[in-house]
Amino acid sequence: MTGAPTPLGEALHARGLRLTPQRQRVLEAVRALGHGTPEEVLAHLRAAGGTPAVDASTVYRALALLEELGLVARTGLDRRADSFHPVEHGGHLHLVCDGCGSVAEAPADAAGELAAELRRRTGFSADVAHLALRGRCAACRRDEPGDGPGDGPRDDPEHHPREGRP
Amino acid sequence: MTGAPTPLGEALHARGLRLTPQRQRVLEAVRALGHGTPEEVLAHLRAAGGTPAVDASTVYRALALLEELGLVARTGLDRRADSFHPVEHGGHLHLVCDGCGSVAEAPADAAGELAAELRRRTGFSADVAHLALRGRCAACRRDEPGDGPGDGPRDDPEHHPREGRP
DNA sequence: TTCAATGCAAAGAATTTGCATACAT
DNA sequence: ATGTATGCAAATTCTTTGCATTGAA
Fold first, then answer.
1. Cα–Cα distance for residue pair B124/B115, rounded to 1 Å
2. How far is CA B2 from the centre of its chain?
3. Cα–Cα distance between A134 and A77 in angstroms, integer?
4. What CA–CA distance (Å, rounded) separates B93 from B29?
5. Are A128 and B133 in contact (CB under 8 A)?
6. In this predicted model, what pLDDT tens digit does every residue of A102-144 receive, in sequence order?
7. Which of A142, A29, A112, A130 is nearest to A70 (CA)?
8. How far does A22 lie from chain B, in Å, by closest CA?
9. Which one of B125, B143, B154, B156 would you mutate to disrupt binding with A, by most A Cβ within 10 Å of its Cβ?
10. Would the CB atoms of B114 and A117 count as touching at under 8 Å?
């Protein structure tokens, strides 16, 4: 027993860093949420009320570190702040609806094709494993058949109480 | 002559809003930059030194309005803040390199296929006309053949002084 | 024991808002 | 004239940082 059973423990140990309960809790929170901004992670931890309590600054520091360690990925899921999600949870697209704020998922294969073509043609290697696409979900499209001013994004957050948190 | 020759003038007039020099300048700035965050737009206007001077709050308000009018689009080009760009400039992908911060462009046709498939399979209508993809450009990939800790994003902003502004 | 990590509090950066005034219509 | 838009400054919100203390190895 050398003492680094978990991926997090290993990654930290390999860098001479330390496995703290706070870092474990932050990672767990990201996994529990599926995806979330630093604030959402913090809120989740506070709501859970576990021990030890985790300070906001620690959440930010931990998320940055976890990203560096390759355990969580960062995407522009939220217009405001960055969202983090577990890498195990990768390999799919996030479909963010600008109408109701819902976040759906889709298999990544279609995007994989796009990525392959881009790399072939431009040499750019796109990170499609954690890609967020913005648009309108089916329900919102039905509600707004294309009337009104232009057909740009409307301002109406709170439509379909579906999956994901706005 | 009724008095609404430009797209901006028309859009404003149609809503009973007013065509001000500030709004014109903000739109011009976005067009001149190709794409930019509110701060970049503000900086551009200040550097240009034209008249009238535009206040930061006015830039924010104008950008939000221009987006609503469908004259500019918003994307997650910058990790920090939202980037705005002219809609006429749409129809292509933004390839944002996490290594050096460069922003290249690619034709949108490949993504159009992805969007079509998504809409077919999930009903989600993705806005691929103004899509930003994150990844590593060819130059950065060459520099970092995959050594080091995992192969997650490194922290080294300032590599290849290429196109775009980090 | 030793040095990294945390918490706390303060600093910073970015965006929003209230209100009197200026100006497009 | 009328009511919208602006500028200014204060208020908010989000994120980062310095430093003494705690705690993992």
1. 8
2. 33
3. 8
4. 21
5. yes
6. 888 888 887 888 899 999 999 999 988 888 888 899 999 998 7
7. A130
8. 22
9. B125
10. no
The H or E element containing residue A105 is strand A103-107
Strand A130-136 with A92-97, pairing: parallel
Nucleic acid strand C within 7 Å of A50 CB: no
Give residue A69's pLDDT: 96
Hey, is A115 helix, strand or coil? helix
- Positive or negative CA dihedral for A149, A150, A155, A160? positive
> Residue B127's closest CA among A91, A137, A112, A143?
A137
Residue B150 phi, psi (nearest 5):
55, -150
Distance B19 CA to C20 C1' (A): 22
SS3 state of residue A30: helix
Q: How many whole angstroms separate alpha carbon A75 and alpha carbon A122?
A: 22
Q: What is the pTM of this model?
A: 0.83
- Output the six-digit token pair for A142: 């039905």
Q: Do A124 and B76 touch (CB under 8 A)?
A: no
Q: Cα(A35)–Cα(A74) distance, rounded to whole angstroms?
A: 9
Neighbours of B158 (CB within 10 A): 9
User: A21-33 vs A7-14: helix axis angle to the nearest 10?
Assistant: 130
Closest partner residue to B126 among A135, A149, A152, by Cβ?
A135
Q: What is the pLDDT of residues B68-90, one digit of tens each?
A: 999 999 988 887 888 999 998 77
Tell me which residue of A92, A53, A81, A86 sits closest to A69, measured CA to CA. A86
CA–CA min distance B50, chain A (Å) = 30
More confident residue, B135 or B65: B65
B136/A contact by beta carbon, under 8 A: yes
Do residue A95 and residue B67 have CB atoms under 8 angstroms apart?
Answer: no
